């Protein structure tokens, strides 16, 4: 995990430098010179995104196409770490910025942010995160299946692990959460017998939110005597791995919008155990100090 975060810092710094370079095009770093400029002009008509393969990336491209007032805008694909680095740099300088974001995420605990309203609903409303397993898992590893079927927590639980991990690592943060939430974990593991070192492949995506949930599930199953390997992949590969049996389970699918295309493609070859977390949201996110509330408030590039 430390390697992941170090890489994120490097990418974030590069993204921040890119944002600064865009700001230099105005000829001055003095914010007073930009007071008369539109928000579009101030952010160079760019939405700062994340990985090309992410569900929110596809939804963001759809949003740019379906809102006529976003004509001429572009989605600058980056990485989750790069997006956060750009956001942090803008907030430190109290500059405008628009990023693709989602909850649960620790950035909402760290900064005062808001979602822009999406009247057309292109980015989707509230979503859930589901648990999906391969066929025959219940027969092959019934106790693992039962724990995964019972696994359910709240957005604030996930955000706590994510936030604590920023000052350490996800394994330590997840272990601390488990220790402090023994009553909830006991509900997942009640009556479960100890395993005998059976291997479990838990497939996920490399987002902080899913690293948090996968880390918690890994430690819970490890403590029950299983050997759990967490495998981070792109969303398309995540569903494919479960459908082909190369992976045993995932607690990362965002439904019914973000990962719907992947879900529909493989739904006949997977087992959906239902929601493990409810109340997620995708959208365009801005710092609260920006005087804008809706995607429709943005103007096209002339």
TrEMBL record:
Top-level taxon in the UniProt lineage: Bacteria
Subcellular location: Cell membrane
Gene3D superfamilies on file: Dipeptide-binding Protein, Domain 3, Glycine betaine-binding periplasmic protein, domain 2
Positions of the ABC-type glycine betaine transport system substrate-binding domain: 35-180, 199-299
Any one GO molecular function term: amine transmembrane transporter activity
Coiled-coil features, chain-numbered ranges: none
Record keywords, A-Z: Cell membrane, Membrane, Signal, Transport
SUPFAM superfamilies reported for this sequence: Periplasmic binding protein-like II
Pfam family, one: OpuAC
First and last residue of the signal peptide: 1-20
GO cellular component: ATP-binding cassette (ABC) transporter complex
PROSITE patterns: PROKAR_LIPOPROTEIN
GO biological process, alphabetically ordered: choline transport; glycine betaine transport
Name of the protein: Glycine betaine-binding protein
Gene: opuAC_4
């Amino acid at each position: 995990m430390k390697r992941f975060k170090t890489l994120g810092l490097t990418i974030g710094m590069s993204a921040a430098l890119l944002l600064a370079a865009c700001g230099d095009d105005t000829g001055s770093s003095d914010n007073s010179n930009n007071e008369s400029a539109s928000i579009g002009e101030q952010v160079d008509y760019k939405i700062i995104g994340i990985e090309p393969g992410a569900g929110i990336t596809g939804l963001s491209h759809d949003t740019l196409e379906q809102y006529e007032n976003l004509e001429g805008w572009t989605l600058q694909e980056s990485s989750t770490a790069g997006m956060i680095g750009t956001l942090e740099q803008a907030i430190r300088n109290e500059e405008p910025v628009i990023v693709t974001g989602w909850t649960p995420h620790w950035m909402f605990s760290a900064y005062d942010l808001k979602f822009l309203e999406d009247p057309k609903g292109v980015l989707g409303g509230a979503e859930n995160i589901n648990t999906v397993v391969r066929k025959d898992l219940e027969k092959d590893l019934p106790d693992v299946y039962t724990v995964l079927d019972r696994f359910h927590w709240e957005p604030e639980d996930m955000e706590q692990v994510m936030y604590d991990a920023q000052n350490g690592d996800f394994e330590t943060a997840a272990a601390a959460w488990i220790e402090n939430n023994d009553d909830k974990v006991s509900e997942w593991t009640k009556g479960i017998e100890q395993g005998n070192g059976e291997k479990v492949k838990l497939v996920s995506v490399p987002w902080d939110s899913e690293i948090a949930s996968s880390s918690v599930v890994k430690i819970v199953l490890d403590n029950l005597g299983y050997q759990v390997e967490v495998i981070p992949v792109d969303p398309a590969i995540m569903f494919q791995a479960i459908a082909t049996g190369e992976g045993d389970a995932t607690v990362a699918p965002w439904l019914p919008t973000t990962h719907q295309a992947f879900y529909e493609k493989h739904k006949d070859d997977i087992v959906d155990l239902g929601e493990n977390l409810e109340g997620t949201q995708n959208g365009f996110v801005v710092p609260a100090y920006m005087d804008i509330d809706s995607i429709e408030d943005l103007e096209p590039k002339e």
